[in-house]
Amino acid sequence: MRGSLLATASAAAFVFLPTAASAQVASQSQDDVDAETETVEEISPAAKAGEGNTIIVTATRREARLQDVPLSVSAFTQEELTANGIVGYERLARETPGVVLNRPTQNFNNFTARGISTNGYSAGLQAPVAIYIDELPISANGNSTILDPNLYDVERVEFLRGPQGTLFGSGSLAGAMRIITKAPNPSRFEASALVDLGYTEMGGLRQRYNGMVNVPIAEDTVAFRAVGYYRNEDGWVDNIGTGIDDANSIEAYGVRAALLIEPTDRFSVKLSVNKEISNPADSSLTNPNLGKFVRRTDQPDLFQSDLLAINATVNADFGFAELVSSSTYSDLTGDFIVDLAGTYNQLVPFSLDAVGADDIFVQEVRLTSSHPGPIEWIIGGFYFDKRRNVDFDYRTTQAFLNQTNTTQFTDLYYQRFKNYTDISEKAVFGELTYRFSDSFWVTGGLRYGEVEVQTTTRGGGYNSNFLTRGYCTVFTAQCLGFIPALTITSIQPSTGLLAKDDKLSWKASISFKPNANLTTYATVSTGFRPPVVNARAGLAPPAAQPNDITIPAGATSDKLTNYEVGLKGSFFNNRFTANLAAFYIDWNNIQVQANRVSDAIQFATNIGGAVSKGFEFELVARPVDGLRLSASGAYIDAHIDDLSPSEAAISGAEPDIRLATPKFQGSATATYSFAVGDTETAFVTGNVAYVGSFPGLFPNVPGQPNVQSPQYDVTDEYVFVNAYAGVNLMPDLSITAYVENVTNNDAITYVHPEAFLDGRYGRLRPRTFGLRTSYTF
User: Fold this and answer.
1) Are residues 226 and 254 in contact, defined by beta-carbon separation less than 8 angstroms?
2) 24: number of CA atoms within 13 Å, CB side?
3) How far apart are CA 28 and CA 34, in angstroms?
């Protein structure tokens, strides 16, 4: 937020039909099922996992069966998302083994995969999991407002676990999540609508409206597809500072449109635009000392996002290979308006109004082999350019200006400055697969990239010692009775250090397929994050606390190596499927975020190393027709294993301390489908998820060895239960009733690591009842 700036690398046509499809598949013979699972469009949730992983994914930048991909991938089709009510990141994380979503509030998201996280916020650091909408990376550092994108009319969501640096760049240290939207269909007219109305206890009405239309303009040649959505959801957290009950409401809306021109089956151009606006009215973070769902701020904390993305994708098939060129421009603006008065227990009121705008251009070109033969290859180039403009305005209250006899400011802002950060990444990459036979193949991949980042401070702003003066007004004893005179200094233009690094990422894997239904693999892969320059490098501590830390220059790149073995198979005539993986991760020169005690300024630095080891599983069984059972989860042991005394002192870490991830996390679902008429079907579903507790940050105060941080705390372990029941009245109409959080669990799921917030705890949403109705044309 203030101390450091990061160099970053970076409703469907089948809405609710899956429930009918599940019932139909369950009652068919195995031969019929096998015949119907040839393409992605025809794969129901039951067929996806229950019939041998026949779903097609593009996790390796080429189409491949999920079963044959030598890495851990969880894939969610639109049918699954809709049938299970998954509309955002939260449920995706619970259904993906080894993944935790650190989410203080709407539009503030960081994923942890395989334990690679030091705290849930990662302020100033690149998030360890890259998030893509099609070809656009939208993940950023932990200070950023990160959009909760709409998950309607998507082809699928793929969550790749383990470093993906070879194909997805430096932002994918621990994994990558890809939201792949549906392309226009030039062969037929399609339309759909989904309405979801719910009620949240201790809150109010939840409204979600989605619609899609697909129009062939020229048969089999040109098509247009558009998706629109609107969300209006009442909150359930009361803000006693602003006096607003149910303050954390949200309004979000957007449109996505695409034009496909396909003059031949060997050439196509897709032009698309995506506009999404998300405006939460306040944060969902709470203060348990004030009440279960209570917070306190002088004004609402706002984390609001506005995304415009324009893309042009060209596909050309040359026979021996397919060329893909994707060009994306995006404008992502975000408000980060937060009350910081918790720093001094509300006695020194101050807030930050930060408004940022990211202008991003991404160009990727890749050539993927399609010729017959034992050799498969991909080569490509990648260019990423981002300018992040941020206005930093620090605000106090009129009452505190009066209390401190301050009259020199024309408004409530005692400090204003603007800066911009230029971030670029250039990379070349490639992968080569050699198939010795249909049952044995090896793959190797390389990516060489160069990252640059530089921050420039614009002139025209001003700084002041108002905060120090205000602190001494309140805490006169600590300042020895001395209250300094107010000084105001103009901020001059300045150019920060140029951080530049080049890295080589690589991976190697061996795959063995003893029969058509079983694939085993062993993979070694690497990843890294780009360097970080602290915007206030060299800044001395405030005069009132001269013994505090001087802000260091920044953090160099960290590096991670992942060793993994896995098994993907289907058994008992495809009645049972299993995806299993075991991994060992060596993480070195870890980038960490710390806070200076005296003034809460954030900065980035490095510490020694950590290891993470564990296993993941995804299991699906269909013991009898109509019944589908699934379970997924992960056990992870992640802890610091290399730490010097000086590194412990500056970071607050301790040797062998756990990283910010649960030891066990998993979910299980049971669905029973049955006929209720000649054409009508019904289903009932129960879903339960378990997430273990984990620390929200390192235990000690940075700069004060062996002094436990007052902010140190752990999340609750919790069980989250959902129930669904629905009926398909005709092929085009489905109605589902649901209860989310059946037991009304109010567990703490997130602990903010910094003192400046009065409310630092995120909780589960209270029990919510609802009804979803969908209709397809």
Assistant:
1) no
2) 18
3) 10
- Look up tokens 């401190």; give the residue: 404
Of 417, 416, 423, residue with least CA distance to 362: 423
User: Domain 4-776, CATH 3.10.450.50 — does that match?
Assistant: no
What does the block give as tokens for 324?
């893909």
Secondary structure (3-state) at 241: coil
Specify the DSSP element, H or E, that contains 30.
helix 30-36
**So where are the chain's domains?**
4-776
> What are the DSSP calls for 276-301, one per residue?
EEEEESS---B-TTT-TTEE--SS--
Q: No. of H helices and E strands in the chain?
A: 9, 42
CA–CA gap between residue 617 and residue 628 (Å, rounded): 17
pLDDT in tens, 583-634: 999 999 999 987 777 776 778 889 999 999 999 999 999 999 999 999 999 9
SS3 549: coil
Using CA atoms, how far residue 520 sits from 138, 148, 162, 256, 596, in Å, is 33, 35, 17, 39, 48
Can you read off the two tokens belonging to residue 720? Answer: 């989250």
φ, ψ of residue 266 in degrees (nearest 5)? -115, 0
In this predicted model, what pLDDT tens digit does every residue of 30-79 receive, in sequence order?
333 333 333 333 333 333 333 444 678 887 888 888 888 888 999 988 88
CA–CA distance, 381 with 425 (Å, rounded to integer):
11
Cα 614–Cα 719–Cα 576 angle in degrees, nearest 5? 60
Q: Are strands 129-133 and 175-181 parallel, antiparallel or unpaired?
A: parallel
> Which residue, among 575, 672, 669, has the nearest Cα to 52 in the 3D structure?
575
Structure tokens at 219: 């048969």
Q: 0.90 exceeded by the pTM?
A: no
